[in-house]
Amino acid sequence: MFVGLAAASPTFQPPLFDLEHRVIIKPRPGLSNKAVQATGVQVQDLRSKPPAAAGTLASGVDPLLLRHLEPGASMEQTLLELNSSDDVEWAVEDHIILPARVPNDPLYQKQWAMQRVGAEAAWDFSVGGLLPPAGKVRQPPPAAPPPPSSSASRNSSKIVVCIIDSGVDYQHPQLASTMAAGWGWNALDPSQPPMDVLGHGTHVAGVIAAATNDRGQVAGLTWGPAAGSAVSLLACKFMTDQGFGYTSGAVACFDYCLASGADVISASWSAGTAPNLLLEEAVGKAEAAGVLVVVAAGNQGFNLAEIATYPAAYGLNHPLVLTVGASGVQDEWVEYASWDAVAVHISAPGTTILSTWPGGFVEYSSGTSMAVPFVSGAAALLLAASGRRMSALQVKQVLLETAEQLETHQGRCSSGVGGAL
């Protein structure tokens, strides 16, 4: 049966705040509801429709169970014991995911000391006041995905970019007409729409498809609906308004995007350095469906050949993953962007990017997060121009082959001497 949780010091303790630690469990095939209930372990079935009560399995599905660790429980010991159980096929940590951004302060790039002391890597674990300073921050497990958006389908004339992020302000004057009907899905609370409070997802959305040539504040790469754009956006919200999410939520969003007929998935975040079985499985499903997945290289400044982060490093063995680094105003490779001549494919502008912000505003933001939507938008434009006759792999190849070759990018990304969109 599922073994108990051993008490010990946590293996990972972010500073300043204490995010909940969770484990995703795949029980062995055929394990009965009674067997699960007999363990006394309170779990949530992540694949039941509608979501099952804690401690139960839905019939006729391949279940995944979410287990919340008690305070003081050791993740390492928990995984060791679960994976040693005859009733468990595998158990993995439900990794914490954070957006791949850096401060929008105009002179930040001149603050060499911040980069010298590894501030960006630290911000991947804590940004102080952005998250509650004390107490347990609990995020509910994602619910089962709803029916696909009726307007977002590969049978539709529009190319669909699905943004897996903190949601989108679908009421923003420059985004409202760009969104697919229904706006998308909120994996945190399906009873609520995928409204963005954090700002990250809205900023990404504006780079891709803010309404353009409409006397608004900013322009989007795909021009926007004022001229009858062939691109629409779906938002899948898995990050909280405080700025974090979990693998289980991101994977649920992948399922939603694929069920809704997305042509491109845009993922401006990092799940850290630990191998992530479920996330890679979700990427593999997208690849099998012929969907291009555009991901951020990350802001730690790592050489990904030495320190792999995910999903960035999936580009090494998944042909439909396109990993994006960041360039600066002078076409320089920015110091915070992770790099590798093979794992990172292309760069795009990522410094002081002006785009849409919740509440009808616009705002500057920086990071490989902001570079990703330029590539997602360019991919959508290529698909639209070809009338969907190009495959995702062909789109990726065209982007890499036509990227401008920059000497400053040599050895930093794989497209020739160094590609910049």
UniProtKB/TrEMBL annotation:
GO terms for molecular function: serine-type endopeptidase activity. Residues 134-155 are annotated as: Disordered. InterPro entries: Peptidase_S8/S53_dom, Peptidase_S8/S53_dom_sf, Peptidase_S8_Asp-AS, Peptidase_S8_His-AS, Peptidase_S8_Ser-AS, Peptidase_S8_subtilisin-like, Peptidase_S8_subtilisin-rel. GO terms for biological process: proteolysis. It comes from the Eukaryota. Keywords: Hydrolase, Protease, Serine protease. The active site is at D165 (charge relay system), H200 (charge relay system), S369 (charge relay system). Residues 139-149 have a biased composition (Pro residues). It holds the Pfam family Peptidase_S8. Gene3D superfamilies: Peptidase S8/S53 domain. The keyword Hydrolase applies. Residues 157-407 form the Peptidase S8/S53 domain. PANTHER family: CEREVISIN-RELATED (PTHR43806:SF11), PEPTIDASE S8 (PTHR43806). Belongs to the peptidase S8 family. This is Peptidase S8/S53 domain-containing protein. It comes from Chlorella vulgaris (Green alga).
